[in-house]
Design a protein that fits this description.
The chain is built from six helices and 23 strands. The two termini are 39 Å apart. Helices cover 14% and strands 40% of the residues. Helix 3 runs antiparallel to helix 4 (151-161). The protein has helices spanning 40-43, 92-96, 111-119, 151-161, 225-228, 255-272; strands spanning 5-9, 12-14, 19-25, 32-38, 54-59, 62-76, 81-89, 105-109, 130-132, 140-144, 165-168, 174-177, 182-183, 188-189, 196-201, 209-215, 229-236, 244-252, 274-280, 295-301, 306-319, 324-331, 343-344. The strands form four sheets. Strands 1, 2, 3, 4, 5, 6, 7, 13, 14, 15, 19, 20, 21 and 22 form a 14-stranded mixed beta sheet that branches. A four-stranded mixed beta sheet has the order 18-16-17-23. A three-stranded mixed beta sheet has the order 9-12-11. The radius of gyration is 23 Å and the shape is globular. It has four domains: 5-88, Phage tail proteins - horseshoe like beta roll fold; 94-177, Baseplate protein-like domains (Phage tail protein beta-alpha-beta fold, 3-Layer(bab) Sandwich); 182-202 and 273-359, Roll (Phage tail proteins - horseshoe like beta roll fold), CATH 2.30.300; 209-271, Phage tail proteins - 2 layer sandwich fold, CATH 3.30.1920. The longest helix has 18 residues, at 255-272.
């Protein structure tokens, strides 16, 4: 089993990186990488690492990222010459680029067709395939691009209305999915495979009540103001002082979609407010598989009062001249539930005592 990180550019396979960081997360569409090497052109003067070139990142035989080099930074000193590059998954183009579909408004269209249209605007294409792994819900009566928004912002907005999560896979495809379907092989136990850990509760982006407002077109004689406006609320019992949040839905809104959006906002904000971060000495689980994002794992860190199953929200593979490590960001897997509830209720740990995980 090889632990080496390999960068493939065209027919060239480059190994021997001295510093690196490769990160994948369920909260950001595209994975990122930063790689550095000493005296790379002394190895092969035909190597090109020009920004814009397509590339693939492997750890051993497992592909992690298919994307492009965004940045190249060579440097020299009295000791050595060095080159650093960084880049992202192919879906980074969806984050950067504007949605340019004309006219940019669709009626009676499902989420899958919206995504396909945004990935292939007006006889052009980002060259990114769409994979669907979950039920995408009902069709939108109307969906429109907001002027100036990126492709990913439009896709994310549509996905939020259907409680679907857009991710990228190792091939750079856009994947519409749900979170936390697969368990990890190993547990995370402090004193065994966990080197260090910290936890954080940050309620800055949580609110006592979420109010979602939207409109639905009336028809014929039924048209009147009371029938066109849609309003839904969701609450968070952990936020005891008055903190309201109003969210406006830009597209055609039903009462059901407004309520689901309100529940989703309460749930996702509560879940992201509680995080546990751990550092491991190895990139691999004991069965030889890489630790990956979007796995469910049992975590026991008594000194942090953490004991339960968590979702690996983000994974970062790190290497420098003196060490190799893995950083995992973990959260409550319930925050991505496809049927969020209207009230975030306070809960206790299994032992009946407060635990760090009971805050969301």
């Amino acid at each position: 089993m090889s632990n080496g990180v390999i960068l493939v550019v065209g027919s060239k396979r480059l190994e021997g990186w001295t510093d690196l960081s490769i990160t994948r997360s369920v909260d950001t569409l595209c994975g990122t990488f930063q790689l550095s090497m000493i005296d790379i052109w002394n190895l092969d003067d035909s190597i090109e690492l020009t920004p814009g070139l397509p590339c693939i990142i492997y750890i051993g035989d497992e592909r992690l990222i298919t994307g492009y080099i965004d940045n190249q930074k060579p440097s020299v000193s009295t000791d050595a010459s060095k080159i650093s590059i960084s880049g992202r998954c192919r879906t980074g183009d969806l984050v950067d680029c504007s949605a340019i579909n004309v006219p940019g408004t669709w009626k009676d269209i499902g989420l899958r067709r919206i995504c396909i249209a945004l990935l292939n605007p007006d006889n052009n294409s980002f060259g990114i395939s769409l994979i669907t792994e979950t039920d995408l819900g009902s069709s939108f009566k109307e969906f429109a691009i907001t002027t100036g928004e990126s492709v990913f912002e439009a896709i994310s907005r549509a996905c939020q209305d259907r409680a679907v999560v857009p991710l990228s896979n190792e091939k750079g495809d856009l994947v519409l999915t749900n979170i936390g379907k697969h368990p990890a092989y190993d547990d995370l136990i402090y004193g065994m495979n966990v080197v260090s850990a910290d936890a954080e509760a940050n309620y800055l982006d949580r609110f006592s009540e979420y109010q979602v407002k939207g409109q639905q077109s009336g028809k014929g004689k039924t048209w009147d103001k009371s029938m066109t406006q849609k309003f839904a609320t969701s609450s968070d019992e952990y936020i005891t002082r008055f903190r309201p949040k109003i969210i406006t839905m830009d597209n055609e809104t039903t009462q059901e979609s407004a309520q689901k959006r309100a529940n989703w906002e309460a749930q996702i904000r509560a879940g992201r407010s509680i995080s546990v971060n751990v550092t491991l000495p190895s990139w691999y689980q004991s069965n030889g598989e890489l630790w990956r994002e979007n796995l469910i794992v049992y975590v026991s860190i008594p000194k942090l009062r953490v004991d339960g199953e968590l979702l690996i929200r983000e994974v970062s593979y790190k290497l420098n001249t003196s060490s190799r490590s893995l950083a995992l960001k973990l959260c409550d897997p319930g925050i991505y539930a496809t049927e969020p509830k209207a009230i975030i209720k306070k809960k206790k740990s299994r032992a009946g005592k407060w635990s760090f995980l009971s805050g969301a």
